[in-house]
Amino acid sequence: MKPSDAVITTFGHCGRGVGAPSGMDDLIEDLAQALVDGECDEPADGTFAATCMDDRLRTDGTDPLLPNIAGGCFGLLLAARAVYPAYSAETCSARRFMQILKDDELPVFAHIDQQFNEPAATGCAFNDRMPDIGTTAPQIIDDVMTLFNADSQAWALARDVADRIRLVTSVCDGKDLFGEDASSRLEAVRGAEGTIEVLSGSHCPLGADISFRSGQTLSRTLLDVDHAVKLFHLDAWSFTPTATQLAWLLPRSAEQERAGTTDADLIQQMTMAMLLTGFSALSVLCGPDTLLVIRP
Prior knowledge:
The protein is an alpha/beta fold. It has helices at about 25-35, 75-80, 95-105, 125-130, 130-150, 155-170, 180-190, 220-225, 240-250, 255-260, 265-285, and strands spanning about 5-10, 40-45, 50, 70, 110-115, 195-200, 205-210, 215-220, 230-235, 290-295. It has one domain (about 5-295).
């Protein structure tokens, strides 16, 4: 695959975070070519999106080669909460949701930023900043529709899912609609005996990589050794099989049964939610000039 077959750009108008790190211009050509050529890819261990898109290795220097999604298991929880008609409040409580994954022997991954001290160590930026991500999702849809002069009907599903994301991430008195906050969501991972990675150092990514290449994930170890850079990374290819497994696994609500909601309906909405929240999270963390590589 040549670079022209991929999308190599910046976040542009959708970037809402800090500016790009210095020195990006000197690295962008070689790095983009390496990503497109798959030089830092390794076979993924499974198809179920599990680990967070975080740019850092674990404290012990290891890198679980699981498909990446924004927020890890918190991103999966948000995707399940975003469907309509909704699952029951019990099913989509963090405690019950993580236990369902654990009971089916699916990976339950989250991380804590070592730079924070208790009680502020509540997980990754995705978990801590869900309201920001929820607010950004509809804004991104509006930006894209304006940029491409898109027919609103063609974007109806995306807009509906984005509005649902904003609703379920809204906070009142520090709690979301499920009566939870970042701390209680992290405790739900502990309660399910999930893997909680402890990551050292602050975020310093050169950019973001979104890959649709089935079965492959970006190795942070190879990226660091071969190119001495760090990237956020999403395995978008894994979102549909992950949503398919969740749709099969999560018990239907009475509202879904009455509405005749199908697996296809749920899969479509959850996949859309994973893509939207992933890009929203990246948008919050990345600036207008930050490198963005999309690999078909």
